[in-house]
């Protein structure tokens, strides 16, 4: 698991640190570095896919961009440093606490963990599109390829597929299960069947919220999810009554043992600027990071480190307190 990440000259993240747990929610306004932090994790995993010019902070002279990943259990004390110099070769260095390079098999294990990071910014239109079947499909960044991923889950993990259907019916009582159609040779699409009278509704005719909810549920029920799952605004487009279920789906990824699942936990990082979604984490301030924009620089501040937190929360909901600006991390004119 990743314990924290240091950013140096990475776009708006000039010099800041992001603490991570099994589950981390980053809350803040647009432009406060939330999405940039997710991009930095992916860049650290594949430094060769990015250039100094693409990553360097605008208007801030520097010669090197760095993202330093600090590992937790079972690799406490080890770091992975991704470097993009203005002149010279990009590099990815694995080190111990003394700065000595770490070799295989440890470096290979850490590299594999990093390369299995997946980030999702879901789009309803992409989710609904039929797909041409091929082996080992993965959900795309925008939720595309979902029909193929669901088809694989049905064939390879029928018990999980049935569990997903039961949870879908609980989230959206008007439906009772996912069905499939074949609109062309080797092409798969999905439909939802209504609970009453068993009518079928094609994906393109489903609401945006229904499609987004199904994509989130599918990731939560994968038998071998990515090592780190990043969700940009998983609450976006979801009815407020479903936000608790969305939170629990993300918790299912991070804490599978709490849901009777024996698979390895995924580390989840989600972003939001919804006070309603944030309020669901009032009892878990250790999972919340406030993204602040100070001038043109973004910073991350763990909510749990505020000495006045309990006093602030005694008479108000967490979402209300954040929305009021008391905790920071809200739009400002300065």
Strand content: 25-35%
Number of helices: 11
Helix fraction?
25-40%
Structural class: alpha/beta
Mean pLDDT: 93
Tally of DSSP β-strands? 15
Regions with little confidence, pLDDT below 50 for 5+ residues: none
- Distance separating the two termini: 37 Å
Main sheet overview = 6 strands, mixed
Query: In sequence order, what are the helices and strands, one letter per element?
Result: EEEHHEEEHEHEHHEEEHEHEHEEHH
Looking at the structure, what is the overall shape? globular
Q: Radius of gyration over alpha carbons?
A: 21 Å
Give the strand order of the largest sheet, numbering strands 1, 2, ... along the chain: 7-12-13-3-14-15
Keywords:
334 residues, globular, 6-stranded mixed sheet, 5-stranded antiparallel sheet, alpha/beta
Describe the protein's topology:
Elements (H helix, E strand, L loop, with lengths): L1 E9 L2 E7 L3 E5 L6 H12 L6 H4 L8 E8 L7 E7 L5 E5 L10 H10 L1 E4 L3 H5 L2 E2 L13 H11 L1 H14 L3 E10 L2 E8 L5 E3 L5 H13 L7 E5 L10 H12 L12 E6 L2 H4 L9 E7 L2 E6 L6 H5 L4 H7 L10
Parallel strand pairs: 3-13, 3-14, 7-12, 12-13
Antiparallel strand pairs: 1-2, 1-4, 4-5, 5-6, 8-10, 9-10, 10-11, 14-15
Helix pairs in contact: 5-6, 6-7, 7-8
Describe this structure in words.
With 334 residues, the protein is of the alpha/beta class. 29% of the residues lie in helices and 28% in strands. Strands 7-12-13-3-14-15 form a six-stranded mixed β-sheet, sandwiched between helices. Strands 2-1-4-5-6 form a five-stranded antiparallel β-sheet, covered by helices on one side. Strand 5 and strand 6 form a beta hairpin. It is globular, with a radius of gyration of 21 Å. 40% of the residues are buried. The model has no long low-confidence stretch (mean pLDDT 93).
